[in-house]
Amino acid sequence: MPLLLLKEGLDRTIQQKLRINLAAEPDLRTWKDFLGRLKTSASEVRIGLVGKYLELQDAYKSINEAFIHGGAYNECKVTIESIHSELLNDGNVAQKLSKLDGILVAPGFGERGIAVKICAIRHAREQKNPVIDKMEEQKRITQLGATMRLGKFKCQLLPQSQAQQIYGSDTIEERHRHRYEFNNDYQAQFEANGMVISGTNPDSGLVEIVEYPAHPFFVGVQFHPELKSTVLHPHPLFVRFIKAAMMYKKQGR
């Protein structure tokens, strides 16, 4: 569409209406490069998007778009298979997920979409071992709404970690929207069993990124990386995720 609008002279019309004088024509070379990668993708991967708002087409719009950005960067077509979390259980999870090249479990609020038997696990998590618990400042809040942890926060990345290699930086900033956090009382136990805490907030010590080095690509983040992904700047996590899915498919799963 931007190319067609440029061809029809919409940019010149807008300049005239707003009395703006731009000497040079818009440079859309990067946009053309994106379209070229998108249309000539030689590879294809199937990614399962597990969520509970799949009946709302726009609920995971940002995630779907981020997959397109990451796929184009890798010259790979990304086919997204939506999987409603309420329809997954121990009896069918292997059948529904085994043929996928990658899986992304989308965020969501509330208890809907969790199988009945998971209620027992939730009870144990909240009453005995609160590995994921409410942030201390959130425990005193009774009025919900825009009182959660919102906005952009810094994250310090662990040197030589997968996250640090993906971002190519020691410090990043990502957008947040949550009330719960990883309970740092369990950090040593997680790390003793192979999990790496690769990203933390430098001011509060909150865990922002975890990864499992024994797995080809197992990364969990507290923030919403899809909100920063654009056509011209695809988010590095989605770029690397698609690359890992392509390698997984190439190796025959």
Characterization of this structure:
The two termini are 38 Å apart. With 253 residues, the chain is an alpha+beta fold. It has a five-stranded antiparallel β-sheet. The protein has a three-stranded parallel β-sheet with strand order 2-1-3. It has a two-stranded antiparallel sheet with strand order 4-7. It has nine helices and ten strands. The protein has two domains: 29-107 and 230-253, Rossmann fold, CATH 3.40.50.880; 137-223, no CATH class. Strand 9 and strand 10 (219-221) form a beta hairpin.
Structural topology:
Layout (H helix, E strand, L loop, with lengths): L1 H6 L2 H9 L10 H11 L3 E9 L9 H13 L2 E9 L8 H5 L4 E4 L12 H10 L4 E3 L14 E9 L4 H6 L3 E8 L1 E3 L4 H6 L3 E5 L6 E5 L7 E3 L14 H15 L3
Parallel strand pairs: 1-2, 1-3
Antiparallel strand pairs: 4-7, 5-6, 5-8, 8-9, 9-10
Oligomer: single chain
User: Number of DSSP strands?
Assistant: 10
- Look at the structure and give the CATH class of the largest domain: Alpha Beta
* Alpha plus pi helix count: 9
Mean pLDDT: 81
Helix fraction by DSSP (H/I, runs of at least 4): 25-40%
- Which fold name corresponds to the CATH topology of the largest domain? Rossmann fold
Taken in chain order, the helices and strands follow as HHHEHEHEHEEHEEHEEEH
Q: Tell me about the largest β-sheet.
A: 5 strands, antiparallel
- From the spread of the alpha carbons, the general shape counts as globular
Annotated CATH architecture of the largest domain = 3-Layer(aba) Sandwich
> How far from one another are the termini?
38 Å
Q: Low-confidence segments, ≥5 residues, pLDDT <50?
A: 113-127, 129-135
Strand content: 15-25%
Class per helix and strand makeup: alpha+beta
Placed side by side, the strands forming the largest sheet appear as: 6-5-8-9-10
What Rg do the Cα atoms give? Answer: 21 Å
The tally of domains stands at 2
What's the CATH H-level superfamily name of the largest domain?
Class I glutamine amidotransferase (GATase) domain
